Amino acid sequence: MLWIGCVFCTLSVLSLGADLKPRSCSEVRQAYTAKGFSLVNVPHQEISGEHLRICAQGYTCCTSEMEDKLSQQSKLEFENLVEEASHSLRTTFVSRHKKFDEFFRELLENTKKSLNDMFVRTYGHLYMQNSEVFQDLFAELKRYYTGGNVNLEEMLNDFWARLLERMFQLVNTQYHFTEDYLECISKYTDQLKPFGDVPRKLKVQVTRAFIAARTFVQGLTVGREVANRVSKVSPTPGCIRALMKMLYCPHCRGMPALKPCNNYCLNVMKGCLANQADLDPEWNLFIDAMLLVAERLEGPFNIEAVMEPIDVKISEAIMNMQENSMQVSSKVFQGCGQPKPAPPGRSTRAVSDVFNHRFKPSEERPTTAAGTSLDRLVVDIKEKLKKSKKFWSTLPDSICSDVKVTGDRSDEEECWNGHTKGRYLPEVMNNGLTNQINNPEVEVDITRPDTFIRQQIMALRVMTNKLRNAYNGNDVNFQDASDEGSGSGSGSGCTEMCIPEFEVISTKAPTVVVDRFAETKASAPKPSHSLVLTVLLLCTIFALQRPLR
């Protein structure tokens, strides 16, 4: 019996000695060279690991040089994983920005061309002589859309004032008008309402449609830039150590095929992407604001619905001016004085000879290169925007769900837990910087937020504010200036619900005009007694001084 026990002990010792014998590194060498590294100085069998700084210092297949190279490889792969995970998001903003920008620009060009062609056919030489008024209108609209410092309301007021000056001369060719007289005419554009209600309605439609269009495209630009910048991560030294331990320490242990456990991967990614996760709340608010403006583009602020019939609306305004030319001229003569007759020989052809029929638009409109209507573009972008919500907080899950990164989720024992093959026990951290204080895998300084990420948060916050203002028809670029003046900026400051406010303003305007023109008919005020005494005193002093000379 004693003999049997001795034999058993001998076999156990021999077996233990076999386990302690260095294992082959052939699989590690194969995986290492597959990464593009040289096999020079790569061990064939495990060696003592006292030289390792990140991985466990037992028997290992890694030299110091291998550990350094694999550490850099883990950093590169992490950067690529974030790039790949965010590729769809970045592509969405890049491609949709291009489509919307192309659509809006070509809509402007097509509308300008359509108006020009139709006005040439309808009004002929008369329009061509005054075409710069209309060309300037479209030039200013384009300048506003492309980011120029243009106050839309003032620009539209200027357009109608210039058009009134030209039209007034055409309906009163028997008179000669000086620059001062024309300036006097333009001052009374709003009060006279020579073009009917078209300018007021068009101002509301154009301002809010262009504010929404420009702000929406700016939002796509900001979303694109933020996504591109934040996707280019710069991992900290603590993150790089954790990545190396997760991705390549299994190689050093002779298990290159072993993938990290899913929860282990999540803790590493939540630690490495802690600052990116803090972008998420502001990103979600930004996406919500984009969706609000997208709804406006589908409905009351649809720039396509505003611009396509603009030639008809302007022609309607011209016809209103023609029909009311007698009353308008009479009131202008009362307010600005009787103009001088035109020099002999000047053409006095009646305006009715020129504007002898109402304008009829062509049924066919040019199509934009985007090849689709605005409604279809908006439906498409809304779907994509909704999918992009919570992107940054779910980025760790997106990366760790990649089969290239983690092992089979169904078997939690067959994965790398950071030390060996087996179940990962620590709990998964929540998202964000402050929640990484107890992260078991990544050393994170929660007292030092990433300034670059904070800059992107601020950019989103500013853009969200612009979008919310655009949703209400306001252009934030002009809000400060409007407070000092009429109370309206480049935007109307209204949604469709406050149209009655415009009605109130328009109904008050004619009363002001009547009073102003009535004042010109009244006799000049008599000089006061104090003024007469002052003049007599000055004359007396002057008379007394003459003999002294």
Characterization of this structure:
By secondary structure, the protein is mostly helical. The longest helix has 37 residues, at 87-123. The strands form 2 sheets. A two-stranded antiparallel ribbon has the order 1-2. A two-stranded antiparallel ribbon has the order 3-4. The N and C termini lie far apart (157 Å). The protein has helices at residues 2-20, 26-34, 64-85, 87-123, 125-129, 131-145, 152-171, 179-187, 189-192, 198-231, 237-247, 249-252, 262-272, 274-277, 280-298, 303-307, 310-323, 325-336, 374-387, 395-400, 451-471, 479-484, 499-521, 529-545; strands at residues 47-48, 59-60, 175-176, 340-341.
Task: Note the topology.
Layout: H1 2-20, H2 26-34, E1 47-48, E2 59-60, H3 64-85, H4 87-123, H5 125-129, H6 131-145, H7 152-171, E3 175-176, H8 179-187, H9 189-192, H10 198-231, H11 237-247, H12 249-252, H13 262-272, H14 274-277, H15 280-298, H16 303-307, H17 310-323, H18 325-336, E4 340-341, H19 374-387, H20 395-400, H21 451-471, H22 479-484, H23 499-521, H24 529-545
Antiparallel strand pairs: 1-2, 3-4
Helix pairs in contact: 3-11, 4-6, 4-10, 4-17, 4-19, 6-7, 7-8, 7-10, 10-15, 10-21, 11-13, 15-19, 15-21, 18-23
Separation, N- and C-terminal Cα atoms: 157 Å
Strand order of the largest sheet: 1-2
CA radius of gyration: 39 Å
Compressed to H and E, one letter per element, the order equals HHEEHHHHHEHHHHHHHHHHHEHHHHHH
Query: Number of helical runs?
Result: 24
Give the overall form. Answer: rod-shaped
Provide mean pLDDT, rounded.
81
Question: Which stretches are poorly predicted, pLDDT < 50 over at least 5 residues?
Answer: 1-19, 350-354, 356-367, 478-549
Task: Give the % helix.
Answer: 55-70%
- Number of DSSP strand runs: 4
Structure classification: mainly alpha
Which band does the percent of strand residues land in?
under 5%
Q: Main beta sheet, described?
A: 2 strands, antiparallel
Say what oligomer this is.
single chain
